[in-house]
Every structure is written in C-alpha cells, then in structure tokens.
Amino acid sequence: MKIFACEVRKDELAAFAEAAAAYQVELTAGSLVPTVKNAGLVSGCSGMIILGQGRIDRSLLEICRSLGVRYLSARTIGSNHIDFDAANPPHHQSIELPSPR
Lower Cβ count inside 10 Å, N or C end of the chain? Predict the structure, then answer.
C-alpha cells in the first residue's frame, strides 16, 4: 500500500519511517498542506494522512479519489476541516483511536 503523509514536521519524520517499516507500507512524507493545486502528489496512493491545517473539501476529495486515494486519516483532535459528506457519500464511518503516547 502506498500512503502520502501531508503536513509532516521534521520532528515526525523518524516516527513515520519507523511506522512505514513496521507496517510494510510505502510512505511518502511531505510538509505541504493539501490543496487542489498540489493534489497530484497523492497520485497512485491508496491513503492520505493529514494534520489539519488545510480544508479538506469536496473538490480536493474528488481529485484525490480520482488519483487513487481511498482512505483518509487525520492526526488531529478535531475534524471540522473535513467535509464528511463529500468524504464518503452517502454514509461515513469515523472512529477515534487513543493516542499511543
């Protein structure tokens, strides 16, 4: 599985590399906030991990979906920056996982 992690800080790079190796996934980490203009970075990825600095709206989700993204994971406390109606119409399932630290 290929995953693109957006908004990754320098202090997080080692943890992302460790997780990618442990779960045997191909992970690309970038510092950019996801937008319609840079959505091409997720091409061929099954999943996208976001932090929450940008708005994950219908237009961005449609582009990402057309490029192969099927899973969206937010590593945030809140989720009001995600258009859930567009994320998985007509239904969506969200779960909260406890922080490992």
Answer: C
Q: What is the pLDDT of residues 17-27, one digit of tens each?
A: 999 999 999 99
Residue found by looking up tokens 């906030």 in the block = 33
Dump the DSSP string for 11-29: GGHHHHHHHHHHHT-EEEE
- Tokens coding 101: 């630290």
Structure tokens at 87: 């994320």
- Distances in Å between the Cα of 37 and the Cα atoms of 7, 34, 60 are 15, 8, 9
41-71 as b/e: b if 16+ CB within 10 A: bbeebebbbbbbebebeeebbebbeebebee
The identity of residue 64, as a single letter, is C
